[in-house]
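## retry 2 of 3
previous attempt timed out at serialization; input unchanged, resubmitting
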Amino acid sequence: DDEVREVEPGEIVIVAKGELRSIKPFAVTNPRPCIFEHVYFSRPDSIVDGSSVYSVRKAIGAQLAIESPVRADLVIPVPDSGTPAAIGYAQQSGIPFELGIIRSHYVGRTFIQPGDQVRHLGVKLKHNANRALISGKSVVLIDDSIVRGTTSLKIVQMMRDAGATEVHMRIASPPTRHSCFYGVDTPERSKLLAAKHNLEEMRTFIHADSLAFVSIDGLYKALGEIIEARPPIEKPITYRQVEHLARAVPQRHLLRRVVHDRQLALDRVDQRIPALGVLGHALDRLHRAEVARS
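## retry succeeded, writing output
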């Protein structure tokens, strides 16, 4: 029989001579899925960790509407990854959903382009405003994330040039304040907009009338609404959490709690990142010392 399932973390699947073999050479650990699979990476028709990516993105958009409502005439997605979240926002808020931005599918993701001039040109080539729809309207733009802010700045200006009376930006992920070392091609932290500016400063930078991000708790709530009938999956660990723990290394009571809970298997995390390596070794030493005293 045909078997379709996800390859599990740490699993090796070998397909040879018409046979499928599964090898699991590592000890079973709690899953640490990447939240960006649901936010941006995966195709909307994908099933990730047993959940429909499309449904999760709609739920995130609905949660965003609950957390950050605004009066407007239209909800407009920044295509394509912002579309499901925009549908969820529109359904929750009751504001009509419209395709106010038409995307060319011959231009790639702009935030990974190497230079500002190339990124600016990429935004202009990639998106075109639906002027007849937008003129004289107050709009809510829904996008999956803000990295450098380059795309958001150009999109907001595009809406104003098309005659929008107000432009409100809503983002279907929390602020990106730290670089990712595990697959998202983000720049160094100094170039991340949210790493340098607070919310009001970011709003001013992109020239929006208002700006809001879905909260971390809201993001987990949106995921939980989709998977509540299934066994709970632990929240993905974030680099911000790791940095917080790394700064707390001298606070032995906090480390004791972490070690006793055994929630963060940081000794297994990529040792190329200094903060993780130092914390992993510190946790390991503390654990051994506490076992010796017990």
